[in-house]
Design brief:
The chain is of the alpha+beta class. It has helices spanning 113-120, 134-138, 141-151, 155-172, 178-189, 196-203, 207-218, 222-240, 246-252, 258-269, 273-279, and strands at residues 2-4, 8-15, 18-25, 35-44, 49-53, 59-64, 70-72, 79-82, 86-89, 96-100, 103-111, 131-133, 287-288. It has two domains: 2-174, Jelly Rolls (Sandwich), CATH 2.60.120; 178-279, Orthogonal Bundle (Arc Repressor Mutant, subunit A), CATH 1.10.10. α6 packs across α7. The structure holds a DNA duplex (20 and 20 nucleotides).
Length: 290
DNA sequence: TATTGCGATTGTCGAAACTG
DNA sequence: CAGTTTCGACAATCGCAATA
């Protein structure tokens, strides 16, 4: 079931296996360069669910209404930590695994790297390849934010609250440096297909300088970010079901051939594209992790 | 569709040199 | 002296072919 309103799009499903509700919110237009989207979710299942979360060119803020989502180390399968009111996941070039105890309830804000840099007010190498508790990043504001969102009467009210908070924080924070803004915009606009040397020439800085600044401010080197952007497009096409063949998709998105695409795919998801499609979960993104 | 091998090309990073 | 560039070694990615 899907319903529409100016600020929220709701998708719901219920069955004997439990039910879920997913609500997408559109951020205020002034946040366009900073936030991709908002999402609210509520799910209950008969047992624990593990999801494989794929890397993407975004910084994720999770606001947990409880019970808390667990983060599992993909290499060992052991729990990495729990963050009662929520957490931030910085840019990452590897997938991660989340686990629910049978239900989850909360919200997700997907920041652009530049938006996250500005919102969190710290160089993002502090957050890269890490999951950090909300209170460590936002201080006392973290738990307070979660509390206010829980108490809001509707998803729309929650989205409005997020707008308010993000606008007040972002618009009063200093802008990211021009080098970083240009790097991000150029990488994104090209679908991750500019040479880093070319990018540096356009900026009038040495390649070394651009790499260092990008790594410092956004948390990943520009090439890695470019590959992530390219890979993310592939994922979007695969999810939409619009891909004719892998070979075609690879060429369209700037890979040399199918082998090249599959290599990237293995590195970012732990398996080939076919496996991703078979394991894909209908709701809440992610794929089954077992 | 998926995997592997291998040479060529590009990206990254430390050390040294430069500039204001 | 801080910030930056240049140089060069090394690592990672790409390009291409072959094969299951």
């Amino acid at each position: 079931m899907t319903t529409q309103s100016p600020h929220a799009r709701v998708v719901r499903q219920a069955s004997e296996q439990g039910g879920w509700e997913l609500v997408f919110g559109t951020p205020d237009a002034r946040l366009r360069e900073h936030v991709h989207d908002y999402c609210g979710y509520r799910e209950s299942t008969p047992g624990p669910v593990r999801r494989r979360e794929l890397p993407a060119p975004q910084v994720v803020l999770i606001i947990d209404f409880g019970p808390p989502l667990r983060i599992v180390d993909p290499r060992t399968g052991r729990p990495l930590g729990r963050h009662p009111v929520g957490f931030v996941a910085g840019l990452d070039d590897g997938y991660s695994i989340t686990e629910t105890a049978g239900s989850m309830n909360g919200m997700q804000v997907n920041f652009t790297p530049v938006g996250a840099r500005r919102f969190f007010g710290m160089p993002l190498h502090h957050l890269a390849r890490q999951v950090v508790g909300l209170e460590s990043v936002l201080g006392a504001e973290g738990p307070l934010l979660t509390e206010r969102l829980v108490e809001a009467p509707s998803w729309e009210a929650r989205f409005a609250l997020l707008d308010q908070l993000l606008l007040s924080r972002i618009l009063t924070a200093p802008e990211a440096s021009p080098v970083i803004i240009w790097t991000w915009q150029r990488l994104r606009a090209s679908g991750g297909q500019v040479e880093i040397g070319e990018l540096a020439r356009e900026l009038g800085f040495s390649q070394k300088h651009v790499i260092a600044r990008c790594g410092q401010e956004l948390g990943l080197t520009p090439k890695l970010l470019a590959r992530l952007i390219r890979f993310d497009r592939v994922i979007q096409v695969l999810k939409s079901g619009a891909a004719e063949s892998q070979a075609r998709l690879a060429l369209e998105q700037g890979y040399f051939d199918q082998a090249h695409l599959i290599r990237d795919f293995r590195q970012f998801t732990g398996g080939p594209p076919g496996e991703f499609l078979r394991r894909r979960l209908p709701a809440l993104g992610g794929t089954r992790a077992d």
